[in-house]
Every structure is written in structure tokens, then in C-alpha cells.
């Protein structure tokens, strides 16, 4: 049998032309002989380029150069996951503790996801912007324990794992002696019930630093304790407030915990009789200087003919409370503030999560899963008598398994669809919030369908997980151990150019289609299957290392997930080499966070717990032990604990002196304190309590 290298060049090129783009990409990547044959045929490269999504108008200087055509093919193939992703994906798994509570633990961005993603540029663009960042945190909550471990994602995932354990927040260490909700009662130990994260806002509309809310208590819910912690970039965690909250009498469980944009915590209680109670808590100051929470109870009742689905996640956006069910990450209920400011309540309504069947139409504003948006400024529409028109186009993902539309009773779309909603204005160019409920009636059109999704009729109890990349070029769907990713180009669906995408951005001198209905007018998706008026996007299945409980795109090529095996990373970029690696998450930590209140009664049991936190096993791995206390530093009870801790620390540290930090060092009369400079940051009043932080620098 003749070898491939012995065949004539014409036959080799014909064989290569029969390959699909993904196989052709792998051949170019792994075989120099085939790469030379590809560089020798311009027609072969043009044929393969025609099978990959992209602009059909290629510049003459690129069309006549085979090397430029080869680079263009590789770029487009990698952009649309035709680079052999199913064979070349790098998989890294770092195992965590088996006892980790995967229902609460999560991977979250340091910067908030909202304001939203924006695609495209135009004159007079009123869209929101967001600051790109790879800074993420992994919040690990051990099951049946009142401890929260905060890991920071490192830039280079080498050595002991991708995450560096930065802080351990232990509520049991010092509160067990004085809180009625702490310790062990009736054989049940205290545990973390829910956590909420509010990221750092990149443009200054929200809190300046990330905020963490920790709700802990017993599983039978008599009283719970809510702790608000701010994560300062330089000073680490700082306690903002700590409150004892009495659960409603009818409450059975804590469904969700969330923050308002103003930083106030909200708790959604799951009650009896198929209802939920939504409570917003605001900090108020008493006459004696102490603080308490004021709350407003809101009840949501399900209709008898609607099967309730358990709510597991809540988002608060601009006066709206959006509730997500367990099975779908789609808005299930929406609560809006009443227009009358004297009526401090929210009006709750069931959200329509399905779209009516048909190519296009007019509908009211719907939430969906936001992808991206674009503002087309002052377009000239020939159908409107040369009138200037501003158009806001928004892409959203809708997932539904309803056979019939809830509102009209007609047929509904089943599956996962990308829908473009268009809001036009000919009066003035105003800012557009795609998540607001006041956008009125919108024109919508289906532009794409996600094919071969995980079975929506047989979902696991943990539901369907959805993740969208920061620039909305990747969508990941996961159900149990099934993981599929999709590649899209959102700019194509939002383009206003009639001819070829990329040459026009909607300036005032070009006629543009204000209501484009086809996604392939420029020929971008000519090679894809079309159904009616939308394009069908095929997925790429990835190997899963376990049951997926949560996932998030760090960038356009890295997908991270929390599985029953640990933290898993998939790299689908051009530098992937089919490398599968297993390791252990780093268990050393950078700092320890505990709390002492001025009103605490210090006992020997408390002292033993505090000393145990800086035991030799922990201390040998720690760079910094952080002791966070409320004001009243001169209290003798605190001094006794502090000196005892220092004696314990000095047993396991070297005798090399530590240079005090200029302007922050404070001398101590205790000999063993001389080796550890006291470094308090500027005292600030947060939540009515003066808070000071001391760091014991170990060597």
C-alpha cells in the first residue's frame, strides 16, 4: 500500500479538501508534510475557509498569499472552535475536600458582572462598560461547619494549584461562647447556610470593594447570624456588621441570600404552603449607639395550577428582585418596587420564560440571559423618509421546555434560542438599560438556535448550568456530567450593514436596516444549517471530570467549574495540547480572620479556641495571621488574649527581628511583642463600629 507521502501532490490536496475544518486544522498542526501541501494550494485554503464562519469578502492581498490564507483559516477556526477542541482541550483538576458543600461553594469574579457586556462601537454610544479582569475568588464552604475559606485565583496555575488560600473566616472560633445561635444545640452544630457576594464595581456605581455576606445558624432555623465582610485589596477582610436575625415563624429553609446595589442584604425564606418570603434588611442606628436591622416582609404565593420550582438564586438589579429556579437559570419570578414611595413593598409577578413560536414579532420586555448589546446611533432608514433613527439591539439567551406559551396559549419555542430584541427611538438618543422593565414593547427576532443541548426533559436535581464568557463569544451548558460549549460571534447578529460585516458601524451617511431579520446577510454563517430565519449552532462536547455544580468562564478560552471531584479547568485556546493533569488544591493559607467583640466575656474555652487557630500545623504554612477586633483595644480582656496568642506564635517562628513599618509600628511592653509590629490601618467607622486590624508578621 503506498504511503501518503508517496502520492502525487494533487491527490494529497484532494484528500485534504475532503476533511472537515477541525480535522484539517489538526493536520496542519501536527504534520509538516501536510502543512507544506496546504501552502502549495490556494484553492484548498479557500475551500476550507468557506466551511468556517467568517466574512466572505477577503482582501486581495490576503487572497493571493497562501501564508496569509493559512493564518486567516487558523484564526477563524480557533475563534469558532474548529481547532480540534474535542481532541486538544487541556483539562486540569485540583481535588478539594470531599466534605465541601457544593451547594454553597462557588467561583466568583472579583469585579461585578453588572453593568453588562457591550459589543461594537458607534458614535454616541450610551452603552455600559465593564472592566475586564482575570481576578477571581473561590469561596469554599465545608459542609456542616461555620467556616468559610477564601481562595484567590493566581495568574499562573502552577505549583500547588490555581488558587491560593488567602483567608479563613471562622465564626465558631470566638462566637460559640456568647451567641445563642453558635455552638452545638440539640446535637446539631452550627453551619454556614448561605453566602452572598457583591463584586467590586469597575465604574464606581456600586461598592468600592467586594462585599461578602455570611448567614450561619442551625438547620432548624430559630435564629441566624448575618456577618457582612468587606474584602479590601490591601488590608484584607474587614468586618462591617454582625447581626442576630430571627427567622420568620413559617420559614423552613433559607432559599437565597443576595445584595441590593446599595449594599443591603436580602434573604429569601422558603416557607410552608408553597410560598416564599422576601425580606430586605437595612442597618439603622439606635439612640444608645447600637445598630439593628429594619426589615420588610414580602410574600410570594404560587398559583394552584403552576407547579412550584424551588428558588435557589436571587439577583437585585435597579429596583427589581429577579428569582431563578433550581432547574433553569432563567428568571422565574420578578419583584418590582411599587411606584408609591409610601408603600414600601414589592409587586411580584410570574415571569414568562418562553417565547412564542414564529420568526419574529412584538413582545414586552423579558429578562432572559443577557449576552450583549449594541447602540446604533442616528441611522438613516429609507423606509422612514430619510429620518434619523437610534436603535438599541440586545442579544439574550432563552431556554425553555414549555410546549405552550403561558400568556397567549399558543405554541412556544422549546430548547435554547438566541433572540435579538430591538428598541428604536426617533425622538432622542437616550441611554438604554437592557435589564430594565420599562422598555415597553420590543421588536424581537430569532437569530440562532443552540442544537443538541443537554436533555431538558430529563434534567438532574441540581438543574441545568449556564455560563457565558465575558465577551459573549462562548456559551457553556452543563447537566450533571454532560458539558457542551457553543461559539458565536455576537457582532454578526447586531450588525447594521447590508453588505459585508465590518465595513460599517452605523454612521449617519449610510443606509442601514433598522430591523435586520437575517443573521447571514453578509454570508457569515453560509456553511451552517438554517431553520426558517435563524442559524443552527452546533456544540462541542468536552470531557467532564465529575458532576458539575457551578461553572464560570474566566476568559474566552478558559472555563472553570466546581465538580464533585474538585475544581476543574478546561482550556480550549490555540495553545491547548490535550494535557490532562490531576492535583490537589493548596491547603496552606495566607491569613486567619477571627472576631472579638468588646462585649464578649472571655473564658478559658475561648482562649483555647483562639490559640488552636494558630496551632503549629497552621502557623507553619501561614504568611500572615490576621486578628480582627472591634474597638476598645485597651480592654484588659483583649490584651490577655493577644499576649497569649503571641506566646503561642513565638514558639514556632524564628528569632530574626522584624523591621517595623514606617508610620504604623506600635511598641509594646511585652518582650514577646517586640518581634511582631502592630500594623493597624486607618480606623474607619463601618456599620457604627470602629474596627481595627492587627497583623502578626510571621517569619
UniProtKB/TrEMBL annotation:
Region (Disordered): 657-699
Stored InterPro entries: F-box-like_dom_sf (IPR036047)
Composition bias, Polar residues: 681-692
Biased composition (Basic and acidic residues): 664-675
Domain of life of the source: Eukaryota
This protein's name: F-box domain-containing protein
